[in-house]
Amino acid sequence: MTDIKRIGIITSGGDCGGLNAVIKGAARMANALDIETYVIPNGYAGLYNLVEFESLTRLTSDRIDNVDAALAGSEAGHSRVKIKKIKDEGKYERIKKGLAKFGIDALVISGGDDSGSVMVDLDGQGIPCVHVPKTMDLDLQTYSVGADSTINRIANFTVDLKTTGRTHNRIIVLEVFGRYAGHTALRGGIGADADCILIPEIPADFDVVYEHVKKVYMDRIRASDVNAGTYILIVAEGLRDAGGKELVDESAGVDAFGHKRLAGAGKFVRQELSRRFAADPEIPVFMKEQGLFVEELYMAPEVREVRPGHLVRCGRSSAFDVNFGKEGGAAAIFLLLEGLSGITVVEVDGSNILYKPTAEVIEQRLVDMDIVSLYETQGVCFGREPQQFSPVITRHEGKVCRHL
Ligand code: F6P
Q1: Would you say the CB of residue 80 lies under 6 angstroms from ligand 1?
Q2: CB proximity list for 364: less than 8 A, separation 6 or greater
Q3: 140 C-alpha vs ligand 1 centroid, how far in Å?
Q4: Does residue 262 line the site of ligand 1, with CB under 6 A?
Q5: CB-based contact 152:191 (threshold 8 Å)
Q6: What is the tens place of the pLDDT at every residue in 117-133?
Q7: CB of residue 9 inside a 6 A radius of ligand 1
Q8: Which of 245, 300, 385, 388 could form an S-S bond across to 277 if both were Cys, CB 3.0 to 4.6 Å?
Q9: In whole angstroms, what is the distance from residue 187 CA to residue 150 CA?
Q10: Relative to the CA of 136, which ligand 1 atom is closest?
Q11: Is 70 exceeded by the pLDDT of residue 143?
Q12: Are the C-beta atoms of 134 and 13 separated by less than 8 Å?
């Protein structure tokens, strides 16, 4: 056991569900072990400027009691600042001075791939730190808090949008955050019976998408005794077209990490479907058959796009994320006390705290194409010719259920 007395807590990157649970789990476990924890406010910007702070907030049991673990966002605040990119040559010395000023021996850092890479950098500079995985994008090698909350929010939006879609016989395109991985679009969409899920891992073939939309939508309305039907597509913001071109609005700019802000994929999909509906001679025939057609006013189904943006990662945290976050935060304290640094909590399995080097954990994980074909075989469109699911059957050894 090391002689750690004071730990700073940093949360960083895009906010999401479960972060307050990480803070609470870490602070409560530290309090139980007579170790003090402090909030380093506003991510790495706060860490860089720590030396200029007059005081820091200590997470006493009263103070931590005021943090609602069930709320998303982070009591510690965030910024998207990459320490390596700060021009000041004395930046690491400045950070160390700030930590020394408040007697902070080590850091718990909760963040995604970018924040994790900064953590690896800080560890390399001799600052002890342990990472608790966080990202709504779910694209780390481990589970990360925030993902389950976001997936549930996307699923709820999808269910809700079907009521307005069906009432107006509209096709709904829901564009969701997730950067260049399709996990949240896939899991949220499947969680709510979406008809089509377009993810960055599969360049979208709009001939395939259109044929699926048209068939499912028409069949639904034809089968309805009130001529009603809708069709919903979940579109991941990092989608590419069949030629591999990103469908983004380049005017959206870049964030402080230097990443392109992704927006525009949903709009592109809406325009593409609307164009095809307008040009398809079978569409007016179908509209007339269903008593929908009105010359000039209503000659083709409407396609609407919804972009919830930050609504997918705010509000309440899922109970799963609160559990994982509290366990991860608590585990990070034990790992620091063990003298470990530059590592990520993978999970708490009974009394076992499992970890991995952060450099390995932050390697991007993409959607497994076998899972995609499992759903394609069940009729969900993924913007390519469906592939048959071919399972490999294996008897599982060891513990099956690790969480909850
Ligand atoms: O990485 C998390 C994430 O929510 C992405 O899915 C999204 O592209 C991005 O953050 C948005 O970030 P910001 O809140 O900085 O605009």
Answers
A1: yes
A2: 113, 139, 140, 180, 181
A3: 15
A4: yes
A5: yes
A6: 999 999 999 999 999 99
A7: no
A8: 300
A9: 10
A10: 2
A11: yes
A12: yes
Residues 184-227: pLDDT tens digits? 999 999 999 999 999 999 999 999 999 999 999 999 999 999 99
Q: How far is CA 92 from the centre of its chain?
A: 30
Cα–Cα distance for residue pair 17/149, rounded to 1 Å: 6
Give me the sign of the Cα torsion angle 330, 332, 336, 338. positive
What does each C-alpha distance from 56 to 38, 105, 356 come to in angstroms? 6, 14, 30
Integer angstrom CA distances of residue 53 from 4, 50, 88, 229, 275: 22, 5, 18, 58, 57
Q: Which among 15, 105, 113, 137 is annotated as catalytic?
A: 137
CA of 7 to the centre of ligand 1 (A): 28
Domains of the chain: 6-145+315-361 (3.40.50.450), 151-312 (3.40.50.460)
The SS3 call for residue 110 is strand
- Whether 113 is in the pocket of ligand 1, judged by its Cβ within 6 Å, is no
Paired sense of beta strands 231-236 and 352-357, if any: unpaired
Task: Give me the residue label for tokens 């074909």.
Answer: 373
Active site residue 113: no
393 φψ region: left (φ > 0), alpha (ψ -120 to 50), beta (else): beta
pLDDT digits (tens, 9 = 90+) for 5-61: 999 999 999 999 999 999 999 999 999 999 999 999 999 999 999 999 999 999 999
Burial (0-12, 13-18, 19+ Cβ within 10 Å), 167: exposed
Residue having the nearest C-alpha atom to atom 12 of ligand 1: 14
- Could you give the residue ranges of the DSSP H alpha helices within 168-190? 183-190
10 Å Cβ neighbour count for 12?
31
* Nearest protein CA to atom 13 of ligand 1, as residue: 14
R_g over Cα of the chain: 24
Q: pLDDT above 70 covers what percent of the chain?
A: 99
Torsion of CA 31, 36, 39, 40, to 10 degrees: -150
